[in-house]
Amino acid sequence: NEFLVPAIAGDAVCSIAVSEPQAGSDVAGIKTNAVKDGDDYIINGTKMWITNSVQADLLCVLVNTSEGQRHKNKSLVIVPSKTPGVSVSEPLKKLGLRSSDTAQIFFDNVRVPQRNRIGEEGMGFIYQMIQFQEERLYAAAATLKGMEGNIQSTIEYTRERETFGKPILKNQVVQFRLAELQTEIEALRALTYAAVEEYIHGKDVLTKASMAKLKSGRLAREVSDSCLQFWGGMGFMWDSPPARSYRDSRLGSIGGGSDEVMLGIISKQMGILG
After folding, report:
1. C-alpha to C-alpha distance for 103 and 126, rounded to whole angstroms
2. Farthest CA pair distance, the chain
3. Per-residue pLDDT tens over the stretch 180-189
């Protein structure tokens, strides 16, 4: 009632605070810690590249709550952003997705009650890995719509724009490339939908979610690059749709798990990592 209900109702903005300046892909390497003091935790540390951090009301923070093994010493703790000791930097100046506020968060002797912990103490890393599967499936699904929009706007532009006496779209090389990209999008859609269906039915989708995330990040860049090319000089203008897509799509292979992390997971699941 205190946190989840207002978040679902849209009355509270939430932010997941996991990454740190020296621990992005290596989630187990975070340094932010929470030390018990009576019935409270005292939190100290810094989080980096945190989405929604500038406007967030509630922060879901991954912290070290013991000195044990790094995969078993972490917990997720809810920290209201107005808690004394919490400070947020100015929005970071990013290459793309500039409408999504991203900043650093600093915790300086931040006191929160232990009852703000989500689930069992020491299970935070496991909980976060489960959440990452959902995030990666969402990323793949959300990317589909953006890529389709990019292709559609390119079709419309190249149908109207003429060079050498005919619309650009009349060139077979343009037609075939757009057809190739649409085929790739449909293949990604099939993989993503299959993974989501299995996840809904309680199956392990670690491999498929990682594959969908990997493919979506790479395909989004491929679509953006090809569409920008077909827009020509206009596509290179900062305010053009393909230019924005080109900038925004680059995060797809970094945020929520880099391509390299996805490949590591897939290789491990295949039994060939090592």
Report:
1. 25
2. 79
3. 999 999 999 9
CATH for 86: 2.40.110.10
Looking at 20, 134, 135, 198, which residue is catalytic? 135
Amino acid identity of residue 128, one-letter, is: Q
Q: What is the CATH number of the domain that holds 132?
A: 1.20.140.10
Domain holding 107, by residue range, is 4-122
Q: What is the mean pLDDT of residues 183-204?
A: 98
Domain boundary among 94, 122, 150: 122
Residue whose token pair is 């020491």: 122
| Residues 179 and 132 grouped into a single domain | yes
Round the CA-based radius of gyration of the chain to a whole number and report it: 22
Residue with tokens 């970071």: 92
Taking residues 12-20, report their average pLDDT: 97
Mean pLDDT of the chain: 97
- How many structural domains compose the chain? 2
| pLDDT at res. 104 | 98
Same domain, 137 and 265: yes
What pLDDT is attached to residue 274?
82
Is the domain of 10 the same as that of 75?
yes
Pick the last residue of a domain from 122, 151, 177: 122
What digits encode the pLDDT tens for the residues 67-126? 989 999 999 999 999 999 999 999 999 999 999 999 999 999 999 999 999 999 999 999
pTM comes to 0.92
CA 183, 244, 58, 10 torsion: positive or negative?
Answer: negative
Does the annotation count 180 as an active-site position?
A: no
Beta-carbon contacts of 60 under 8 Å, excluding residues fewer than 6 positions away, are 14, 15, 16, 17, 76, 77, 78, 118
